[in-house]
Amino acid sequence: MTPEETKWRVRRKLKLQYWLLGAWSLLAGAWVVSLCTGTDTFGWTAAVALFAGYANILLGIVNLRRLLAGKKPF
Q1: pTM of the predicted model, to two decimals?
Q2: Which pLDDT tens digit goes with each residue over 3-44?
Q3: Separation CA 44–CA 39 (nearest Å)
């Protein structure tokens, strides 16, 4: 694979990671709305799962940006 193909694929993956961040934010917003309306009770497992999802997505974005800069991922 040529370096240009690699950069193209990394850029595509980075775009998908940003899309996933937006979708995850919508899910978190829906969870907060359901908490406020009383249809769901607060559970630490759901909160931990949401924050772990954010951490995973953000680490993926950081790693892909490091790859585009020519550095090694974490």
Answers
A1: 0.86
A2: 889 899 999 999 999 999 999 999 999 999 999 998 888 889
A3: 16
Residue with tokens 């993926």: 60
> Does residue 57 contact residue 21 with C-beta atoms inside 8 Å?
yes
- Residue 64, both tokens: 């892909």
Residue 43: DSSP 8-state: -
CA distances from 9 to 15, 49, 69 (A): 10, 28, 14
Neighbours of 64 (CB within 10 A): 21
Residue found under tokens 């940006």: 65
Whole-number pLDDT of residue 74: 80
